[in-house]
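Fill-in record for D-serine dehydratase.
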Amino acid sequence: MTIHPISNYPHPPLSSLHLQYLDQPLATLPTPTLVLDRAIVRRNSAAMLAVCAALGVGFRAHVKSHKTLELARMQVGESGPAHFVTSTLIEAESLLPFVLECVGRGRACSILYGVPIPQSSIPRLLHLASKLPAYSLSILVDNLAAYSAFQSSLPASSPKIGVYIKIDTGYHRAGISTSSPKFPFLIEAVVEKSGESFKGFYSHFGHSYAGSSEEDAASGLIEELKVLDIATEAVPSSFRGELVLTVGATPTSTAAQNMLSSNSPRVGEFKAVLERIQKKHKNIGLRLLVEVTSVYDEREKPEALISAGSLALGREPCKSYPGWGVVTGDLGNKDQIVYDDRGAKTGWIVGRISQEHGILTWEGPRDQFKPLAIGDKLMVWPNHACVAGVSMGWYLIVDSDQGGDKIVDVWVRWRGW
């Protein structure tokens, strides 16, 4: 039986969404809703491609946070390679039409399923791989038993699937440590059984999010590279292929901007461009529109209730400040001080959350705060964009290059696993 899980998650008609939202002012929208600034997203995507070009490395775009075709296209640009990593198979399946379009245009492209694959998902994986050119789809392995089970499930005429070994560089979520006694046996088995299908090593330095500075992020990136370098030394001499080393979480990817010698004229020019971009534009493209539903000015710290909790904001507080989100200077907060964890630490933040509601708390001197009123609509930068989108069926798109105050498009998110 051919499995088509995408059909279990039909998208709402775009025509209906456009009728509801296009040209609507932000202040009239229902809450909570996620708003993406297309202009900022476009600039961020171009900047990441420029970083990789300046460093002379490849780029693989992760789609797990946004789960949209429109943003995936922006991430890889209009030309050059189009490589992706996904966290669910339905993301990979949803990328298939675009990847085939890229193949037809002669672009190098691939999809990496970025977590060790569940055995029950192998039939879907094989079906997807059969639609793609050889080695356009790759998997991660970190366990010899799981890899052997995967190999034994492959039919004689199996499509050619690439294999990366997931290395644990300290996060201890998934991956195998290079110091593990099982590591040499896993590499030997992958090289022996996969041959040219063995593509290299993959690391996700997820604990870099706990860092507090650019120096911490840079140290994390260096540590990732050192550990993967050790991994390459364990590859049997019989392997003749080219190894790909894949690294990067958000902090360490950002740190990569500074990884080349500052004496290089090319890097100096690149840093100057980045600094100019950063001074000119805010680079956070996602905001959550919320509404004030009650106010509590009489409390020790002034507080207000908003129509968004953990299901809309995510579960993680931030290490650098005591909250789940920061109220921006948009909409009804234009004359308000925006909380700066490195500055005066004054302004409204999301200080507590429940499942469906959050509590805004005023941080800083009481005599500086601007009271909020019931019905006020505010924009919030959430800590964790990946989780903030999970409960949303779509993003409402604005474009700050076109004013940024009205909806110009709707991007539907992929759903399911």
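KEY FINDING: The longest strand covers residues 286-296.
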